[in-house]
Amino acid sequence: MGKIRILMLGGTGEARALAEALEGTGRYETLLSLAGRTEKPSDQPVPLRIGGFGGAEGLAAFLRDGGFDLLIDATHPFAARISRSASEAAAATGIPAFALRRPEWMAEPGDRWTPVATIAEAIERLGPSPRRVFLAIGRQEAHRAEAAPQHSYLVRSVDPVDPPLVLPDVQLVLDRGPYDVASEVSLLRTHRIDALVTKNSGGSATYAKIQAARQLGIDVFMVARAPAATMETVATVEAMLAAVDHLFPPAMNRGV
């Protein structure tokens, strides 16, 4: 019996969990694609490809040439460029497509959030007076901090920031989530952090820093997500499994 072929654009914990769940059904043949921005990606339960496609046209060609039946965009909520390409490629090929997007974090009592649209705005909103800033945005846009060199920065990312930041006072922490509240509180206290810059990624893997900031009364400059993809969107791995199974009932597997 032939399997339904799925191309999944990944890079999140949810993508890995979904790939594992799809593999466990025995009905799907999944290829997981990563952008290649992380030097040492975590182990994956399905075959892996690394690298870009050359925009929407390249992705569309890859889908056609590979005989894929479904495209799943399970990239990071802030990976706007690949998500746009995914939507355009799905429309160009007529291949069904879903987006897996975990819900945004919502402010709770005790949170001291300043909503901002971009990281550059967050850096500007820190103000002119020197602050001790935890920059928890990954490495891709960490250079934005160079616009405000009066602050002291703690930068956390999976891989080193390259090229290195040109700042008078910056420390780099190489680490990969998930994190727990106790360790995040300790990190913030040790470095005497008074401001946190982060993206509204949602999910549980990195939420501990938000809880820690709430506990310590630290200002959070929260970067909002860009508009969601135009393709049909679901919020959980379980909902995605149900959507895929609904689209491809067991009797539709090739050879049945």
From TrEMBL:
Pathway field: Cofactor biosynthesis; adenosylcobalamin biosynthesis
Zinc listed as a keyword: no
Ranges that cross the membrane: none
GO annotation (BP), single: cobalamin biosynthetic process
UniProt entry keywords in alphabetical sequence: Cobalamin biosynthesis, Oxidoreductase
A molecular-function term among this protein's GO annotations: precorrin-6A reductase activity
Pfam families: CbiJ
This protein's name: Cobalt-precorrin-6A/precorrin-6x reductase
Organism ancestry: Bacteria, Pseudomonadati, Pseudomonadota, Alphaproteobacteria, Hyphomicrobiales
